[in-house]
């Protein structure tokens, strides 16, 4: 059967095949759904039925999946892979909100949705702790993960009724509580009726109609007059209220809550929350810290399917490694770990996953293994099929020549043996050419492995088309005319001014920093959040002035600066100018230095081609597209030095790979702040492959290129060179993570 759903006023349309038999899987951590179709529409509503809206708008919207199979194995960890705009977040929302009819309502799904770009700031809001009020961070996480406040409200209502002086208090409280629960059940049945069609849809709508009658009866009972309530009914419902109160109190008993609180503290500590932060009002947190709190809430929930959409956004490396190890430990320590679906651009981080789930050509492709293995397997398969096809084409051509010769000779000499031999070879050519292996990978047998009863020959060898790779080309910097460092910091110290009304100076954010950047240099800066990385970047790009020390620049320096808040700034600009597109924005800023064709070429080279650049307003671009737009604003000036602060956030892994390759070989200088270890190893240290077995140094020596590659660590305002590079910093963080997990 086919089912159709409309979510958020028809923004997501879902249909899938369902069995005609009502079979509920006892394992809610698994999904097995065939014929899945998902379409995203404009979101305009109407008075038409859900089915009519679905038919009308499925053709108008953007198709994300078409006849796909969604199969998740219990306890497996899936990395959801796909390019920006392929529909990853849409699929995750459809699963989390159970818009797909094949997902049982009892399945518990916890989701961390992709962080808004406006939530980029990971620093606390100055002075916000005094003004804010409400539950603390710890209380808020526990409440949202366990619905504790809802339980406490129910307990409070029943307690007042049972222990109050009103003889009907317990009955009234019980009936109100039952009615509220029935209203929640009504929402589920209503959604179920909209999700289903055909015979099951008719059955669901019938169940909804019957339940609506029960709701009406329940509402009447809530308002029932005292003289209409018999003493037997009163006594029975008082006892039922007391029993329900006892059950609810068991759920909030101190020993259970203490265990939940202990787990919550452990998770929050792993995500960077200090003891002082746990007691701060949750409303006082800035965007990045709110994201961490939401992640803690998702991890604390008891769930069957755990969905994490870009959880590493705005986490520092300590938090990333802790999360990676924590998710692995859940699978190892639990008999029934949740099924994990993870989206991340961080290739090192998704190494924790056991399987890949790839959105490709409106379909879902599965692979058991990691991303490097998948890429290698795809390359090997394409090469194998190419060689197989070339060999068969050569053999086929030879057989066709032989068949033509035999037929010609047989007809000329009226030799029936020759003619029969030619026909036999033709049949062999028709039946035996094609794939030499079955779908399961074994040797192909004609009487067993045909695609269907109506086929008479094996399928042709089809070489999968090689996807057009994402490429980024960085423009060569202009000649400096005379040598010298591009940027130079000498004994630089920076201290923020004291808070208003205070005479005590705060400690320096940066202390005695000395750094020089020459053309061709690769400078990486690592450190935890709050170590002073962004402050150092602002000094480099002249957005702040040092308290002490000197900063000098090359007179002809052209600097390109990508801020970690760039996407937020573009979104704000787009909201203020709703008709502004990427093309019109660059045309306005470039002011004639490049013509429209050159601007389109630049945007296209960064992944904003054609109508995406000229027709889609900036306010409607995705996070990854906004990153590309900001890079275009930087690169058209042909900078000598790129200062990049968390540039990989919001990008898909293929674009991150392309940017890594481009930065590694570029002639200019790069100063990079990033928590993405794989990206840092390639762009700064010059490592070519996953294991780092190849290095650029030999190639650079052959080409006569002098390129300095240095990774620095910022800690408590002090900067030191990491002789062991990114790997040394990883080892330090791994040691701290082991301690956090052991506590």
Describe the structure.
45% of the residues lie in helices and 15% in strands. The strands form four sheets. Strands 6-7-8-5-9-10 form a six-stranded mixed beta sheet, sandwiched between helices. Strands 15-16-17-13-18-19 form a six-stranded mixed beta sheet, sandwiched between helices. A four-stranded antiparallel beta sheet has the order 1-2-3-4, sandwiched between helices. Helix 12 links the parallel strand 7 and strand 8. The two termini are 52 Å apart. Helix 4 packs across helix 11 and helix 13 packs antiparallel against helix 14. It is globular and about 100 Å long. It has 743 residues and is of the alpha/beta class. It has 24 helices and 19 strands. It folds into four domains: 169 residues, Rossmann fold, CATH 3.40.50; 107 residues, no CATH class; 84 residues; 177 residues, P-loop containing nucleotide triphosphate hydrolases (Rossmann fold, 3-Layer(aba) Sandwich), CATH 3.40.50.
């Amino acid at each position: 059967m086919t089912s159709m759903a409309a979510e958020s006023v028809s923004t997501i349309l879902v249909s899938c095949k369902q069995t005609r038999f009502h079979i509920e899987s006892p394992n809610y951590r698994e999904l097995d759904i065939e014929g899945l179709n998902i379409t995203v529409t404009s979101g305009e509503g109407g008075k038409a039925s859900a089915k009519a809206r679905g038919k009308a708008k499925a053709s108008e919207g953007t198709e994300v999946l078409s006849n796909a199979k969604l199969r998740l194995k219990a306890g497996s960890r899936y990395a959801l892979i796909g390019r920006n705009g392929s529909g990853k977040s849409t699929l995750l929302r459809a699963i989390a909100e159970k818009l797909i009819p094949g997902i049982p309502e009892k399945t518990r799904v916890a989701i961390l949705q992709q962080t808004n770009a406006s939530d980029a700031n990971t620093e606390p809001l100055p002075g916000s702790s005094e003004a804010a009020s409400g539950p603390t961070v710890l209380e808020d996480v526990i409440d949202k993960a366990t619905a504790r406040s809802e339980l406490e409200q129910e307990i409070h209502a029943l307690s007042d009724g049972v222990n109050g002086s009103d003889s009907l208090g317990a009955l009234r409280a019980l009936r109100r509580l039952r009615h509220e629960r029935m209203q929640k059940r009504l929402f589920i049945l209503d959604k179920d009726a909209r999700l289903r069609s055909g015979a099951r849809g008719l059955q669901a709508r019938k169940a909804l109609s019957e339940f609506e009658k029960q709701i009406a009866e329940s509402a009447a009972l809530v308002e029932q007059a005292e003289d209409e309530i018999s003493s037997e009914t009163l006594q029975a419902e008082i006892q039922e209220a007391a029993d329900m109160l006892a059950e609810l109190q068991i759920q909030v008993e101190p020993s259970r809550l203490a265990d939940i609180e202990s787990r919550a503290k452990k998770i929050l500590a792993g995500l960077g929350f200090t003891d002082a932060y746990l007691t701060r009002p949750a409303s006082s947190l800035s965007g990045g810290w709110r994201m961490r709190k939401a992640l803690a809430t998702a991890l604390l929930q008891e769930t069957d399917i755990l969905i994490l959409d870009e959880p590493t956004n705005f986490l520092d490396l300590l938090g990333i490694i802790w999360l990676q190890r924590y998710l692995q430990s859940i699978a190892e320590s639990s008999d029934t770990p949740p099924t994990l679906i993870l989206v991340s651009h961080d290739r090192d981080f998704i190494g924790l996953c056991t399987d890949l789930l790839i959105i490709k050509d409106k379909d879902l492709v599965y692979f058991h293994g990691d991303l490097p293995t998948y890429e290698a397997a795809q390359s090997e398969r394409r090469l194998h099929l190419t060689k197989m096809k070339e060999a068969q084409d050569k053999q086929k051509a030879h057989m066709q020549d032989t068949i033509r010769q035999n037929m010609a000779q047989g007809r000329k000499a009226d030799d029936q043996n020759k003619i029969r031999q030619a026909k036999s070879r033709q049949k062999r050519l028709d039946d035996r050419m094609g794939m030499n292996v079955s779908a399961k990978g074994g040797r192909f047998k004609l009487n067993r492995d045909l695609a269907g009863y109506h086929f008479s020959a094996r399928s042709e060898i089809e070489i999968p088309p090689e996807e057009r790779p994402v490429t980024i080309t960085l423009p060569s910097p202009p000649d400096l005319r005379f040598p010298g460092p591009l940027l130079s910091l000498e004994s630089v110290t920076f201290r923020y001014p004291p808070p208003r009304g205070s005479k005590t100076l705060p400690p320096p954010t940066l202390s005695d920093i000395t750094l020089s950047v020459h053309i061709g240099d690769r400078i990486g800066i690592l450190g935890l959040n709050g170590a002073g990385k962004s402050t150092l970047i602002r000094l480099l790009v002249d957005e702040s002035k040092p308290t002490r020390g000197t900063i000098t620049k090359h007179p002809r320096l052209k600097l390109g600066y990508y801020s970690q808040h760039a996407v937020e700034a573009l979104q704000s600009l787009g909201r203020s100018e709703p008709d502004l597109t990427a093309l019109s924005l660059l045309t306005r800023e470039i002011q004639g230095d490049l013509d429209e064709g050159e601007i389109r070429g630049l945007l296209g080279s960064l992944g904003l081609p054609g109508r995406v650049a000229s027709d889609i307003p900036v306010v409607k671009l995705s996070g990854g597209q906004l990153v590309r737009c900001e890079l275009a604003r930087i690169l058209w000036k042909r900078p000598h030095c790129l200062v990049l602060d968390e540039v990989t956030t919001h990008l898909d892994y293929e674009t991150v790979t392309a940017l890594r390759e481009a930065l590694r070989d570029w002639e200019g200088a790069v100063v990079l702040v990033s928590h993405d270890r794989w990206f840092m190893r390639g762009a700064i240290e010059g490592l070519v492959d996953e294991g780092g077995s190849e290095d650029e140094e030999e190639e650079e020596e052959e080409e006569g290129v002098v390129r300095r590659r240095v990774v620095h660590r910022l800690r408590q305002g002090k900067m030191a060179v990491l002789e062991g590079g990114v790997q040394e910093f990883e080892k330090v963080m791994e040691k701290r993570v082991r301690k956090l997990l052991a506590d």
